[in-house]
Write a structure and sequence with these properties.
Elements lengths: L13 H22 L4 H21 L1
């Protein structure tokens, strides 16, 4: 939840909260998968997490 700044929503827009919540769930899942890896897959999952954070930022902007 920290990865998307879930509590930061100055406008109080419910859609912003929904987008951030969904992105946070995906990031949490990717992070769990990454914990089980110790190779190239771990790096790729890290990139996917970063890209999800970026997508969330653009979506709520």
């Amino acid at each position: 939840m920290k990865a998307v700044g879930l509590t930061f929503n100055p406008s109080g827009d419910e859609k912003v909260t929904e987008v951030k919540t969904l992105c946070a769930k995906v990031i949490d899942l990717l992070n769990e998968l990454r914990a089980d890896q110790r190779n190239e897959q771990s790096r790729l999952l890290s990139v996917a997490i970063t890209e999800m954070q970026t997508a969330q930022m653009w979506a709520v902007k």
